[in-house]
Amino acid sequence: MSLEIKTISVSLSQLSNLQDLVFDGPINEYVYGLSSFCLSYDEGDRNDVLELSVQVSMTPNIGANNRLSPSITAVLKDNSGNTADPDNSWVSVTVVASTGSDYDYFMGNSAMGSSDQTNEIEPGAKTYIQLPLISGFVLTYDGSDHQITTISASTTLNISPGSSKGIVTSLAEMRDSSENFATGKAQGGYLCSTSSNVGVVSTRLNGQQTTDAFAIDFGTPLSSCAAFLSAFTVCYPDNEAHMINNVTIGVGTKAGSVATISSSDNSVVSIPCAQSKMASNGHDDYSDDKKSSVDIVVLAIKQEGDQ
């Protein structure tokens, strides 16, 4: 059994130059999820929103069973031709793949579909780790752009105790203060273990809102790690609606800012932040930190010999 983690963290200007993800062994199953993203209009500019979206796909490489070819699209635009600044906007996506001979994991992604879609999964056995991931979303107003009051997305994974079947539900929503709702599409991911003796540790942290780095001590030496979004909500106070400059969600502060292993014994995962914010540059229009938050999933692989 072997689990491998690969992370892509790049500005939008680099999305056309993504390289294949190369794993050490043949890929049995894989799942991808968003770690963080920032979509920003030009510095100092603020606009309404017609579309806000992040879409991801991974294509197995024909002829090389240890490679995945990534594709990422991220959009922020209004009705007047203003779009995301490709140098100041970025996306971080993490892929987990099972590359061993033992099939102790069950993972995958639902198709991008209408918000509140449900997908039945069938691990085929009792599961011991159940991790839901946001894999992508598309939020589009019909015809005209609007100011923003609230943006949210989530993935939930429900597997009854002892059951071999489960339900993955994905949601995405964007609205203004006049109850103009965007059409939402969402994609979720799931990662489950079907054995209690697997070489990974994980934790889920809900309702997080901090721009400060923090650490999680798993108490065992680790070889690699990742942090994923499972839900986020960002909103302005008092049901206010505003034009925006940027939306920044997740565990990163910039491109390349991702979860890492720290400490002398390699047992600690450092998270750069856990934030859910939007703002209008040069104006006092900031989202409400008390009502905005992220839920994150942290996954780490134990070092060989400790599994």
Tell me the layout of helices and strands:
Layout: E1 3-11, E2 21-22, E3 29-40, E4 51-60, E5 67-77, E6 90-98, E7 105-109, E8 113-114, E9 117-121, E10 129-140, E11 150-158, E12 166-175, E13 183-193, E14 200-208, E15 214-217, E16 222-235, E17 246-250, E18 260-262, E19 268-271, E20 275-280, E21 285-286, E22 293-302
Antiparallel strand pairs: 1-6, 2-5, 3-6, 3-17, 4-5, 4-10, 7-13, 8-13, 9-12, 10-13, 11-12, 11-16, 14-22, 15-19, 16-22, 17-20, 18-19, 20-21
Strand percentage lies at: over 45%
- Helix percent band: under 10%
Output the number of helix runs: 0
Total E-strand runs = 22
Number of individual domains: 1
Helix vs. strand class? mainly beta
Terminal Cα separation, in Å? 10 Å
**Uncertain parts:** none
Structure characterization notes:
- Helix content is 0%, strand content 53%.
- Strands 2, 4, 5, 7, 8, 10 and 13 form a seven-stranded antiparallel β-sheet that branches. Strands 1-6-3-17-20-21 form a six-stranded antiparallel β-sheet, with no helix packed on it.
- The chain has one domain (3-302).
- It has no helices and 22 strands.
- It is mainly β and 307 residues long.
Question: What keywords describe this structure?
Answer:
six-stranded antiparallel beta sheet, 307 residues, mainly beta, single chain, seven-stranded antiparallel beta sheet, globular
